[in-house]
Amino acid sequence: MSAVQSPNVPVLPGISSAKRRQIMDGAARIFAEHGYEGASMSQIARDAGVSKGTLYNYYDSKASLFAAFIEECACEKLPNLFETIGEAQSPEATLEGIATAMIRLTTSPLSLMLNRIVVSEAATFPHLAETFWQVGPCKAVGILADWLRARTREGILDVPDPELAAELFYALCQTRITWRKRLQLPVDADPVHIAMIARTVTRMFLNTFQVGKGPPVPEPVRDESV
């Protein structure tokens, strides 16, 4: 399977890459300090060193700016998550590489900040959660699900519901380190500890889904009401 290509950051007419970077860096600092509701376009423009009018020329609202900020983060970070997919490695090595990258991603300051904002503001601004889900977790689930589906066709894995299995894998990756980081609790997050968690997650996952390893995997439950 070929390596995951970096999605293209949407290009806005009339905005240079340097100007976009300037605005996004300012937005990141203001959103991190004030959250979504507490941030204002005036603050972001001032921090980014652009006029408020210039900012509104490119982004007609705070919501569109935040959506663009999340999308840019996803475009930059997602390819790093799946570097091992494009390499000729065993399923164990591939999944261990993804797990390691996922733990590093979810415990990075940027990811912790985004998670904090989206969770705290979701009830008031549900579109933030939807945007975050679509450009980040949903894409990650889809990429891993496609890989699991391909390995199932090859007879290496037995994954009746690849999307559910991908979500389970990512949930396991958030064990111990990520959850404690999100709650700002002390936790050992050095590379050795991350590698240990990644190996454990991978072995547990393959013990369920690798052909000949575990008990039969239940078929996906179908919602008859749909």
What overall form do the CA principal axes indicate? elongated
Average of the residue pLDDT scores: 88
**Order of helix and strand elements from N to C terminus:** HHHHHHHHHHH
Structural class, judged by helices and strands?
Answer: mainly alpha
**Helical run tally:** 11
Low-pLDDT parts are 5-10
Radius of gyration: 20 Å
| Highest CATH level, the class of the largest domain | Mainly Alpha
Biggest sheet architecture: none
Helix content: 55-70%
CATH superfamily of the largest domain: Tetracycline Repressor, domain 2
Name some characteristics of this structure.
single chain; mainly alpha; Arc Repressor Mutant, subunit A; 2 domains; elongated; transcription; DNA-binding
